[in-house]
Specification:
Elements lengths: L2 H10 L6 E8 L2 E9 L43 E3 L4 H14 L22 H5 L11 H4 L5 H9 L15 H15 L3 H13 L5 E2 L33 H5 L9 E4 H12 L8 H7 L11 E2 L4 E2 L12 E5 L3 E6 L4 E7 L11 H14 L3
Antiparallel strand pairs: 1-2, 1-10, 3-5, 4-5, 6-7, 7-8, 8-9, 9-10
Length: about 375
């Protein structure tokens, strides 16, 4: 059942991504699963030159490669763990919605009730639809290089509105950081604790969490990401969050930071497809996946989710989900009973690889074959 999916991933490795894992479920049953590539392929981001097997950067370098090949290259497996990047936003949204169910948050209340001094026009709904007029990103690690996570978070929350409030759509990590912090304030608990208590524990997702390996350590199942020479420790980033802002905030943030294996992400997607399960009420999922009327995007937008995003759904028109900068995506198509997971480390050892959009859409097209 997985031969075609295996060929799709194998054709993308290593040019599009060094490692990839994909799962396709139809009405809750895995219809296709595949893994390809290597969790750690490179030791650095020194482009190989010359001929033969040597390049002056290491005896394992090969001409045309984006970095020096590692001596040990563990294979990707179905249970391999990947940095989800912006797919984390879906879990932040689920936490926020669970708090609204308990009356601890209101989607349309000005967030200044939690963040004194915030623009009175900003609401959680606008944060979750990227219509709060906030800048797309903020390299708080560069702005405050000597500061700790708390000081950096305070600076993030004080980010001024620079665009129109209420639309058009302007994708903003800053807004999702703010949403995550508001959830913490409303529930009097850190975001990682909230995600564990309200999502991973209730759904039984033991492999999902922030700061997958504390202190920048290694873990055999975790896929490496980008080579960042400014970070302590040798080699490419592995076992700590790739995103610079999330890393600067201590590894836990509303926009990025989660690590997970494919089966855990599939179970999360299935919970949404089935109306929330033990995580959310059906009405919350309906509101999350309803077109919120956001203008200016290439897709419709729900709360924290993109609906019909052509970059990830391929032919699955009407499906919703999210992608991540590291090369990850989750697509849920309730009408067809499909949940599609693709995890890669396309930023290893450098960002900007071509072909990720095409791979995502090819996997979505393969999913459609299983219901056609």
């Amino acid at each position: 059942m997985s031969d075609r999916l295996e060929r799709l991933l194998a054709a993308a490795v290593p040019e599009v991504c060094p490692a990839a894992v994909a799962l396709i479920a139809v009405h809750g049953t895995v219809a296709a699963a595949a893994a390809a590539g290597e969790l750690v392929r490179y030791t650095d981001a020194e482009p190989a030159t010359g001929s033969g097997t040597g390049s002056g950067t290491g005896s394992d370098a090969v001409p045309g490669a984006p970095g020096t090949l590692a001596a040990e290259r563990p294979p990707a497996r179905r249970d391999s763990v990947f940095d989800l990047a912006s797919v984390s936003k879906l879990c932040t949204t689920a936490v926020v919605l669970s708090l609204t169910e308990e009356g601890l948050l209101d989607l349309d209340e000005p967030v200044r009730a939690w963040i004194p001094g915030a623009d009175p026009r900003i609401t959680l709904r606008r944060l979750l639809t990227h219509t709060a007029g906030l800048t797309p990103t903020r390299r708080i690690d560069l702005e405050l290089p000597q500061a700790g996570p708390d000081e950096r978070m305070a600076a993030m929350l004080a980010t001024p509105v620079t665009g129109p409030v209420g639309g058009p759509y302007l994708y903003s990590d800053v807004g999702m950081v703010m949403a995550g912090r508001i959830a913490e304030l409303a529930a009097s608990a850190p975001l990682d604790v909230l995600v564990r208590a309200r999502i991973t524990d209730v759904l039984g997702l033991p492999g999902t969490g922030y700061r997958r390996v504390g202190g920048g350590g290694r873990a055999e199942r975790v896929a490496a990401t980008e080579f960042k020479p400014e970070r302590p420790g040798p080699g490419c980033v592995r076992g700590e969050v790739h995103d610079e802002t999330a890393h600067a905030l201590g590894g836990v943030a509303g926009h990025a930071g989660l690590f997970a294996p494919a089966d855990d992400l599939l179970a999360f997607g299935e919970a949404l497809r089935l109306g929330g399960g033990a995580m959310l009420s059906p009405s919350s999922v309906a509101e999350m996946t309803r077109d919120q009327g956001t203008e200016g995007a290439a897709f419709r937008h729900g709360l924290g989710v993109r609906i019909g995003d052509p970059g990830i759904v391929g032919p699955l028109d009407g499906a919703y989900g999210h992608s991540g900068f590291t090369g990850t995506s989750l697509v849920v198509d309730p009408a067809r009973g499909l949940t599609v997971v693709l995890l890669t480390n396309a930023v290893h050892p450098v960002r900007g690889r071509p072909g990720m959009r095409e791979l995502r859409c090819a996997v979505a097209a393969e999913a459609l074959r299983h219901v056609a």
